[in-house]
Design goal:
Blueprint (H helix, E strand, L loop, with lengths): L6 E7 L3 E9 L5 E9 L2 H13 L4 E5 L5 H9 L5 E4 L3
Parallel strand pairs: 1-4, 4-5
Antiparallel strand pairs: 1-2, 2-3
Amino acid sequence: MEILYKRCAGLDIHSETIVACVLIKDDDTNLIKEIETLPTLTKDLFYLLKWLEEREVTHIAMESKGSSWKPVYKCILEVFFDITLTHAQ
């Protein structure tokens, strides 16, 4: 599989939790994967932003099913501009 972005994240958003997965392609051939699960409280959204920034994420994909994604999207949009919304069916 071709790697399009060297530092990207995927967010799986539920009503009470967010599962974030970051993939980082280092300068060698290594692919580093980190997964974080956290609540959807405001303080946890700020933690998520910090966590993504610390990993220098440049692209984020997140689901847009239901309404749970909206507050997360608004919070992330303050810092990240390259967000892809998806709807799994």
